[in-house]
Design brief:
The chain is mainly α. It has a single domain, classed as MFS general substrate transporter like domains (Growth Hormone, Chain: A), CATH 1.20.1250.20. It has helices spanning about 10-45, 50-85, 85-100, 110-135, 145-165, 175-180, 185-195, 200-205, 225-245, 250-260, 265-290, 295-315, 320-335, 335-345, 355-380, 385-395, 400-405. Helix 9 (about 225-245) packs antiparallel against helix 14 and helix 12 packs antiparallel against helix 16.
Length: about 425
Amino acid sequence: MNATSTLGPGARFGVLLASFAGLLFDGWELGLMPIASLSVTKSMLGANYTDALGGIWFARLTAGLMFGAAVGGIWLGNLGDRVGRVRAMGLSILLYSFFAGMGAFVTNLEQMLLLRFLSGLGVGGMWPNGVALVAECWPNTSRPLVSGIMGAGMNAGVLTLSQVARYYPITPDSWRWLFGWSAVPAMLGLLVLVALPESPRWLATRSQGQAKTPAALAELFRPPLLRLTLIGIALGSIPLVGAWSASKWMIPWADKLGGASQPGYKALTQGWWALGSTLGSFFGAQIAGLLGRRLTYFLISFGAAAMTLVMFNFTAPLRSSFLPIVFVQGFIATLFFGWLPLYLPELFPTRIRASGSGLSYNSGRFVTAAMVFAAAGLVVVFEGDYAKVGSVCGLVYTLGMIAVFWAPDTTQKSLDET
């Protein structure tokens, strides 16, 4: 009997809804600094603010979140294999909600940087546990659809945030309320802990005696899993590095060129990107189901590199072509994030699935943090020209066309096999 059959339809939909909501608020947290960074920095630095410092602090605050997410994803992913997906997911939501909410009370940028790291712990932990839980609670035939829904979750959060900020502009004089509201998802975290059913597949591994030998991260770095781990890290890193060290520069770029005349322009820009990315992260899994895992990743890598270069070199904020191109770039570059929740769980056995998926996805955040710091150096080299920074960093997408040749094709693989 398939392990998922122990859950009724209502329970499966409850798992999907709670996990989607957890990722939606995860996306809200991820979208906070791109849309609020310059306002926070101007507020804290006052007369000392410059465009170069704005770019440097944007990079620092982004990198702080990425470091936290990388640590949290690996730590809480492994915790999910040890104590259960639901407990680790509930803890993740509580962590990112509490520390994001504390951002409303900071008095300097260093405090905000620390809180971004601490909030990142929960941001990183939500993805591997939510994805593993949903993958293990739904039948294999439904996985492209539910993986697409999960992939869309984070970008739906970014889209929601952009619409709030569009109608309630974030300025140097008005930004603390945004962080205060970011504590609200703590209620979801408590609900998950007390009401959500655990993964039947994970419970089955406990009943088979594997609870006595809980998953260890070291196992991922020994044969036969070592090769899969390295492939997973490579494939998970490239989309994250591209998104945060390249794509996200469109928002401070839009704020710099359009913010003076249209305070809500940065939110409008993020909204167009988030709309495209929400659709892209849903359809990535569907395309992978039709074309196969490897070919899909190759085509996404090519398209993301091409559209990122187009966005930063053939248009500019306030031009009529800018927002439609931002939408298309967001759609193509985030097809990855529908592909990843479908593919990464297929690489690893159940007893270490959350650890493997979390390590693969979140190791990319260590690389991303380093690349964002490097991009901050490029801001100085290019004298505050965000378009040049985005163009150079966007070339990272081309590496995906190479890395995917080493990836196994899991298109016909069932999770029941592991």
